[in-house]
Each structure stands twice: as C-alpha cells, then as structure tokens.
What we know:
Layout: H1 10-15, H2 20-30, H3 46-56, E1 63-67, H4 73-82, E2 85-90, H5 93-106, E3 111-115, E4 128-134, H6 143-153, E5 154-165, H7 172-178, E6 181-188, H8 192-205, H9 207-214, H10 218-227, E7 237-244
Amino acid sequence: MSGVxxxxxADFYTRQLSSPTLLRIYQDVYGADYPEELRPFxxxxxxxxxxxxxxxxxxxxxxxxxxxxxxxxxxIEVARKAGARLLGLDPLESAVxxxxxxxxxxxxxxxEFGVGGFTETGLGEAACxxxxxxxxxxxxxxKRAAFAEVARVLRPGGRLVLSTWxxxxxxxxxxxxxxxxxxxxxxxxxxxxERQTEVYRRILLESPALESELGPGAAVLLAEARDTPETLPxxxxxxxxxxxx
Length: 245
C-alpha cells in the first residue's frame, strides 16, 4: 500500500474494539447485513461477502491472499466458507495483530497474517491461487504497480476480487487489462451511498462519545466522516473481478 495514507489508521486499529458507540452505529445502519461477528472497520456487508465468495470460486485447499486485510474478518469468512487457506497482509502491525486474534477467536486455523502491502507483498512469483482486497485499494497511490504485483504473485488463471471506490478519473478495469487480466465483473454494491452517508452522519453526531472511547484514534475517523461525503455521489463503491491471463 502507499506507506503513508494507511499509517493514519494505526492507532485506530489498536482501539477500534473499545468503542461500543461505533459498533452500534454500524449495527443500526446495516442491520442484519452487518457481519457483526467479524467486527470489520468499513462498509463490507454479508451481501458483499457472499458475492466475493461466488466470484472467487475457491477450490478447497487453495491459497487466498487478502491484501490490506485490516483485522482480517472478510478474508477469514471467505476462506473458511470455501475450505481454503488464507494469508492476510497489511502494512499496519496493529491490524495484523488484530487479525491474528480474530482468527483465533473464530477457530480458523488455516490463516496466517503478516506485514506487507499491495506493491511489496514479499511473496514469490505465482505464489497464490486468488487475491482478495476489501475497501483498501483507495489508499494505494500507485495502482498500476499494485496490479502488476498482484499479477506477479497470482498463478495463471488465478482470480482477483476487490471492492473499492472509483472516482471519475480512475478506470480500474482498464488498468487491470493492461496488467494482463481479463475483467469478468464490475458492479456497484447495493445501497452503498445511502448507508455510507448515514454512517458518516452518525459518526459526527456521536463525536464526543467516540473521542472518549477511541482517544487519539478518533481523529482519523472524524476527519474521514467530515471530508468524504461531498465526494461520494461521483465516487461509486464497486466490486471488480478479474482473471489473470
């Protein structure tokens, strides 16, 4: 990943689980579609997870790499449903530590987590069967380099599935095709704008409680909630699936 943008979230990941207010916001906005047992930070839903699973179509025993894994929940869920192995990579040690704890709590033993990013995974060539990335690619400045690295570590015929936001000046599908992929799906996620806007509204409304519960970790969350909404109408949240040629 960029090595800069994600560092803003280091303290937040350390403190996230200490905030009942943040958990309640996601519960209220997403209802039964919120995968509460995974305690994700972000906008992933049970509907998204089912779609990731379908698009990846992992055979039992396959190796899935989750790039920008955060606390690991989405990768764990997709891998264990498929009977696959998981390697989660994130630039933040605090996120990696949280992912290891979550895998242990959920009893998923086919998971490993380590420090690494989109452009420097530390993996060998053709090392994995599939790559997943959930709401992390937006923090990567050099997306072309990121897709080149994904192509390098994937086996021929391997699949990439990602969710991200696409501003008007970016063409993720075009960049993937130039990196040697065939894009097989590009779709907006359901009700993303309504839900994301409401989460941000609630975060700002609950800022005193969040500052008390998260300490310094609240600052980046509140800044995101203030700065992001005006860009959302022209920046759809999308899922893209591609196969390496």
